Amino acid sequence: MKTSAILSIPVQLDLHKQIIAAGEATKMSRSEVMRQAIRIGLPYLLSGLALPSGATTTKAPRGRKAC
After folding, report:
1. How far is 44 from 27, CA to CA, in rounded Å?
2. Where are the alpha helices (DSSP H) in 1-67?
3. pTM
4. Of 12, 45, 47, 63, which sits with the fewest C-beta atoms within 10 Å of its C-beta?
């Protein structure tokens, strides 16, 4: 049986508008747009921001503020 998790994530207004526009342009739901964006973009995120094995840091990734 297929299981799924529900993620509720806040997004900035400009990103929300892009998600809506992408859904209208592709005739996909907003949920499907976000799922596809994660599937397509996650490998790029990992290749660009992943730390080397065993590395630790307290610095924020490129250009992002630490919390």
Report:
1. 25
2. 13-26, 30-49
3. 0.64
4. 63
